[in-house]
């Protein structure tokens, strides 16, 4: 994977400021993560983007725990909010701690979900049942299609997940990152064709 130390990253005809200081950012991760944010905006005029961290007590060799969390979390989101599209990105990191941790970003219909506190309750419910702890920053992002200011701040925040530091300390069968695989709604954004 290519690691960039540039502060600006071009994607989809737009220049994005990214958090590449110190360890750089992996470009395949950046592309995937930025794409999923933009794809969500093809479905919803307003998108709420929330980032949180998941910590676990012991190291695991596979990505099964994060896959299991994502499945359970998505089921809770659908049951509670009735959403039909859930965008997400996650990365696995391990540096000095004995166990890896995950950074996670979830993107939802901004008309249905406008704040992070309810999402934090669901994260806590699911991850705590799995034996982990979580951290939810106070800041979330309310994106509006066509408005670049808040979107640029959110992309900068999401780019942190693609940082070089902490990646690669895993067995070959595990992944460093994952994301939803939503396809764009080309009616709203024909340049995605």
TrEMBL record:
Q: What is this protein called?
A: YagK/YfjJ C-terminal domain-containing protein
Q: Where is the YagK/YfjJ C-terminal domain?
A: 41-169
The superkingdom listed in its UniProt entry is: Bacteria
InterPro entries (alphabetical) = YagK_YfjJ_C
């Amino acid at each position: 994977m290519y690691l960039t130390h540039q502060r600006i990253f071009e994607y989809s005809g737009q220049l994005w400021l990214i958090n590449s200081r110190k360890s750089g950012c992996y470009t395949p991760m950046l592309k995937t993560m930025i794409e999923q944010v933009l794809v969500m905006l093809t479905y919803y005029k307003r998108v709420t983007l929330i980032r949180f961290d998941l910590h676990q007590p012991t190291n695991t060799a596979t990505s099964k725990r994060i896959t299991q969390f994502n499945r359970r979390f998505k089921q809770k989101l659908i049951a509670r909010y009735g959403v039909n599209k859930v965008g997400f990105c996650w990365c696995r990191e391990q540096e000095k701690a004995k166990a890896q941790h995950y950074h996670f970003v979830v993107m939802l219909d901004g008309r249905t979900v406008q704040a992070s506190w309810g999402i934090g309750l669901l994260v806590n419910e699911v991850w705590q049942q799995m034996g982990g702890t979580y951290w939810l920053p106070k800041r979330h992002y309310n994106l509006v299609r066509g408005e670049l200011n808040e979107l640029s701040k959110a992309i900068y925040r999401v780019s942190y997940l693609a940082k070089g530091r902490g990646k690669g300390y895993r067995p070959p069968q595990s992944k460093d990152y994952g994301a939803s695989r939503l396809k764009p709604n080309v009616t709203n954004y024909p340049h995605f064709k």
